[in-house]
Design a protein that fits this description.
The protein has two domains: about 220 residues, Alpha-Beta Complex (Spore Coat Polysaccharide Biosynthesis Protein SpsA, Chain A); about 70 residues. An eight-stranded mixed beta sheet has the order 7-5-6-4-1-2-3-8, sandwiched between helices. It is built from nine helices and eight strands. By secondary structure, the chain is α/β, with parallel strands linked by helices. The longest helix has about 35 residues. α5 runs parallel beside α7 and α8 runs antiparallel to α9.
Length: about 325
């Protein structure tokens, strides 16, 4: 069995040497053959040079993938998974807030028969009002919508069997929804508390705007999980929900016109409410259709969501 630790990197120059040391110490006694796939997501602070040195020092364990520009964390994770070879894939951040010492614990739990082991930052070392509280709210909403109840969807530190990562591509902020996708194909999922440390170097790339993006992606996830194979249930249901009340209202207006001689379509409140309801649903449905078209475009042509500049120590058989 082989273990791949996939780590997206964006402007983490000071953390990278410490991360490499921590990985080697944590996995020194690991009975799995292991590799670390670090994906530079267009860093501008000199992280690329540090990554080259790490790959040069330990070509047996360190593989580096350089993306041509900053594509975002999800695309970097997708690149790391594509260029990894392990039967077990562990995702983690490069900022050392995740602790590599937790990796053996996640793997041991995976070996009990689970397909996904999700980290839970039970004692989280972040600002409460700007990071922790929005995260709690988002986790509760995601758990309710997807039906997969986890305390910490936002924790990158998770272990997966490779087979549950195949069959779908990641877009937007979708990496945090991988457990929901895995659950849709019958994966066994569990959760373990993991260590969480304050950030020592660099700046956080997370903020309230990213939380809003996650909430928007949640619409897409719900659509893909529940309606991808039966979209008529969604579109038809929405259509009926609009048509039936409108028909009843129209009948009422006709009756009012016949018996009380009130003009049929001159009520401004009726016209405004109907217009805004229709426009709102059109906007939402057009967004979902657009998401489906994007996936058709990428997957029908085998196009990834990133482009690679170069790969240091590529997998055997690849240049």
């Amino acid at each position: 069995m082989k273990l791949s630790v996939v780590i997206p990197v964006y402007n983490e120059r000071e953390n990278l040497p410490l991360l490499s040391k921590a990985l080697h110490e944590a996995l020194a006694e690991c009975r799995y053959e292991w590799e670390a796939v670090l994906v530079d997501d267009g860093s501008t602070d000199g992280s690329a040079e540090v990554l080259r040195e790490l790959a040069k020092e330990d070509p047996a364990h360190i593989r580096v993938v350089f993306l041509r520009r900053n594509f975002g964390q999800t695309a970097a994770i997708a690149a790391g998974i594509d260029y990894s070879q392990g039967d077990v894939v562990v995702l983690m951040d490069a900022d050392l807030q995740n602790d590599p010492r937790d990796i053996p614990m996640l793997i041991a739990k995976l070996e009990e028969g689970y397909d996904v082991v999700s980290g839970w930052r039970k004692d989280r070392k972040d600002a409460f009002f700007t990071r922790v509280l929005p995260s709690h709210m988002a986790n509760a909403l995601i758990s309710w919508v997807t039906g997969v109840h986890l305390h910490d969807y936002g924790c990158t530190l998770k272990a997966y069997r490779r087979e549950v990562l195949e069959g779908f591509r990641l877009y937007g902020e979708m990496h945090r929804f991988i457990p929901a996708y895995a659950a849709a194909v019958g994966a066994r999922i569990t959760e373990l508390p993991v260590r969480h440390h304050p950030r020592k170097f660099g700046k956080s790339k997370y903020g309230l705007m990213r939380t809003l993006k996650v909430l928007l992606d949640l619409f897409t996830v719900k659509f893909l999980l529940s309606y991808f194979h039966k979209p008529i249930y969604l579109f038809g249901g929405v259509g009926l929900a609009l048509i039936l009340p409108s028909t009843l209202l129209l009948i009422f207006l006709i009756i009012r016109r016949i018996f009380w001689s009130v003009a049929l379509f001159t009520s401004p409140l009726f016209q405004l409410s109907l217009m805004f309801i229709i426009l709102g649903f059109q906007s939402l449905l057009m967004g979902l259709i657009a998401e489906l078209l994007v996936r058709t475009y990428h997957e029908a042509q085998g196009k990834p969501t990133y482009t690679v500049r170069e790969v240091l120590n590529p997998p055997s058989g690849e240049a």
